[in-house]
């Protein structure tokens, strides 16, 4: 797992607007900045900037289609981020389990 790539995913998804774009594109299969901007109260340039940030993080694949660029979600970086969260969560689960055992032993020793 590439820590820099996971960091880039979390950074990109830290913005609610970018998360919304990922959800919308995932539901559609793919979309262009023009199509997305037509449904939002922001400019096409603003949407394009957000799409570029998501593509740079590896969350979207950009494919030229004539004069437009179509964006589609790439699941691999999300999978790596989920794996990272599971590993960190697992370590906390282990620590909490050990803490629970210690508390139980302390109570029983009284």
Protein described:
The protein has 110 residues and is of the alpha+beta class. The chain is 70% helix and 13% strand. The protein contains five helices and three strands, in the order ααβααββα. It has helices at residues 3-13, 16-28, 33-37, 44-56, 75-109; strands at residues 31-32, 60-65, 68-73. A three-stranded antiparallel beta sheet has the order 1-3-2. A hairpin with a 2-residue loop joins β2 (60-65) and β3. α1 crosses α5 (75-109) and α2 (16-28) packs across α4. It is elongated, with a radius of gyration of 20 Å.
Notable characteristics:
alpha+beta; 70% helix; elongated; 3 strands; 110 residues; 3-stranded antiparallel β-sheet; 5 helices
